[in-house]
Design goal:
The protein is of the alpha/beta class and about 290 residues long. The protein is about 40% helix and about 20% strand. Strand 2, helix 2 and strand 3 form a beta-alpha-beta unit.
Length: about 290
């Protein structure tokens, strides 16, 4: 690897998200030719390097030490060393460490070059069966319940296909919250992309949730793809309460029928509407 400048180059190298064969020839060559590889987890990355007979020295750079490691890596680059940054899987900096390092290198005028390859969000989107002309990648959502729901409320009017990463432990709770806030939208849950137990569950959010509840446990990394808002009619809770009161007073439909009608019209979870009708009937919800 030739250096035409006195400074080195920082390469952002995408690695497989599961199947070790999903790496480019260029990525392998780059990892062999650089002077150092900064890895999210050196123990994890050794498996990949051994598989491709890559003997380049590894140093660690993960979310807990990136701020401390960045000055040293920048110094190496200034001294003419070429360095590759890799994460445990996929493209570095995409819901993975590397942002601080890339930003610092750019500020110092150091050349930063991407070596493209795997990314779970794009791989999953390509087979999700949802619109791909416009999409919004959100990565991991907030873990705290209130902050999560506030974020979903903001996102519910977004038209692009929504892409999320979630842990297998929390994915059922996330889908439940989405049902209550987004309504029963078309979606796809991708699990263990490119790995042995790869799985894609397509359907409405309610159907995906039902299939997940039938499993003894959900395992593996999860990527969730949800259709964006396709309705022009967006209403807040007060407006919804007023609509329910007006239509319930008219008496044309029973509780279940009214919930179904409003759910379909405004793309809101039927259960959410049904529960609100019951509260209004009991006088628990002021209009």
């Amino acid at each position: 690897m030739e250096n035409h400048n006195s400074e080195g180059t920082l390469f952002i190298v995408a690695t497989p998200v599961g199947n070790l064969e999903d790496i480019t020839f260029r990525a392998v060559r780059t990892l062999k030719e650089v002077d150092l590889i900064a890895a999210e987890d050196t123990r994890h990355s050794k498996k990949l390097l051994l598989h491709y007979h890559i003997g380049t020295r590894l140093i660690s750079c993960h979310e807990h030490n990136e701020a401390d490691k960045t000055p040293g890596i920048i110094n190496h680059l200034k001294n003419g060393l070429n360095i590759a940054l890799i994460s445990d899987a996929g493209t570095p900096t995409i819901s993975d460490p590397g942002y601080k390092l890339v930003t610092s290198a750019a500020k110092e005028g150091i050349t930063v070059i991407p070596i493209p390859g795997c990314n779970a969000a794009i791989a999953g989107l390509s087979v999700a069966g949802l619109p791909t002309d416009s999409f919004l990648f959100l990565g991991f959502l907030p873990k705290k319940k209130q902050k999560l729901r506030q974020t979903l409320e903001i996102l519910k009017t977004q038209a692009p296909t929504l892409i999320f990463y979630e842990s297998p432990r929390r994915v059922k709770n996330l889908i439940t919250d989405m049902l209550n806030i987004f309504g029963d939208r078309k979606a796809c849950l991708a699990r263990e992309i490119t790995k042995l137990h790869e799985e894609y569950i397509r359907g409405n959010l309610s159907e995906i949730l039902k299939k997940l509840k039938e499993k003894e446990s959900v395992k593996g990394e999860c990527s969730l793809f949800v259709r964006g808002c396709t309705k022009e009619k967006i209403i807040n809770q007060k407006e919804l309460e007023e609509i329910i009161m007006d239509r319930y007073t008219a008496g044309d439909l029973g509780t279940s029928g009214l919930a179904k009608q409003i759910s379909k019209e405004f793309n809101i979870s039927k259960k959410y509407v049904y529960d609100m009708i019951l509260k209004i009937k009991k006088g628990d919800t002021p209009v």
